[in-house]
Amino acid sequence: MNTWTHRHILDLSSFSLEDFSAVLELANRFKALPSSGARKLPALQGKLVATLFFEPSTRTKSSFELAARSLSADVQSFSANTSSLSKGETALDTAMTYVAMGADILVVRHKSSTVPLQIANYLDKIGKQTAVLNGGDGLHSHPSQGLLDLFTLAEYFNPSNPNLDSLRDKKIVIVGDILHSRVARSNLWALTACGANIVLCGPTSLLPENFSEFVNSPPPGQQEDPISNRGKVKIIRSLKEALNGADAIMTLRLQKERMQQNLLSSLETYNEEYGLSHQSIKWCKKSVPVLHPGPVNRGVEMSGDLIEDRSICLIEEQVRNGIPIRMALLYLMSAIEI
Ligand code: CP
């Protein structure tokens, strides 16, 4: 188990198959623990986890805090609205304030893609042991979401043994606002690593053609891809055509806060072309699960009926799986001493 080498977790493009396996195996074990008080494990006793969310969050922040407490860590939560950011303090100075208070792990969410990396680089430069876990940065990456989606799908396909092989050769359709989605980017790295083939579906304004090349070369700063044989990525614009033969569908929130200009004629038109409903998912020609990272724009990305249909919609399972996945990440990060 102890082959973990990631001091910081900033994205999933640098994860090997062993890394993905280690996270899934641990998450599976943590999920099997009783959900009563006996669930608390001593693994992070004496550690301080600070959740620095400079952007809003419900799921990620709460589940990181629950995960940290489940491992007996102390948790310090930061509220951007009532912080000294309003007096001009920078994100880096804010982070260093929590480091000075003894934080061992910083979970950082920020609207700018580079902030968690900048904090991690600075900590490394000055020789601090504090680790950074990216809780979602701009359009770049949301690694814990990508991992909980991977776990949820692996569990769906193989409930008794949710491992990486469960995803091999599966056709996963990702629908919607790919351009602004760090979740889509993290899922592309994670799912193709496990040999799943991805179909991206959406209008050109939210899904530029070059996304079909997304996993073809390692991102800047990385010499080579740790995965030798990734699944394929292709773009299909028509939802009906994209869903034909799909094994699972993931739909994404329209990220209006990140759109530079109005990229859609109307939400009604978007819903007609790309919204998921009981009617449209029949195009898969078999029963398939539907995932959404949340929060959902009801009646835009998915119909209310489909969201309520627990036999198809895995949103609640994704939220539940967020806790054991984040426990696994905190556990693995705190186990390495450099
Ligand atoms: N999926 C996700 O990141 O949700 P939150 O913004 O609520 O954390």
What labels would you give this structure?
338 residues; alpha/beta; Rossmann fold; 2 domains; four-stranded parallel beta sheet; 34% helix; binds phosphoric acid mono(formamide)ester
Describe this structure in words.
- By secondary structure, the chain is an alpha/beta fold.
- The chain folds into two domains: 17-141 and 321-335, Rossmann fold; 143-317, Rossmann fold, CATH 3.40.50.1370.
- Helix content is 34%, strand content 13%.
- The protein is built from ten helices and nine strands.
- The protein has helices at residues 17-31, 59-70, 91-100, 115-125, 143-157, 182-193, 239-243, 267-274, 304-308, 315-335, and strands at residues 48-53, 74-79, 105-110, 131-137, 171-175, 197-201, 233-235, 248-251, 290-291.
- The strands form two sheets. The protein has a five-stranded parallel beta sheet with strand order 7-6-5-8-9. Strands 2-1-3-4 form a four-stranded parallel beta sheet, sandwiched between helices.
- α8 (267-274) links the parallel β8 (248-251) and β9.
- α2 crosses α10 (315-335), α5 packs across α6 (182-193) and α5 packs across α10.
- The longest helix is centred in the C-terminal third of the chain and has 21 residues, at 315-335.
- Bound molecules: phosphoric acid mono(formamide)ester (CP).
- Phosphoric acid mono(formamide)ester (CP) binds at residues 57-60, 136, 145, 293-295.
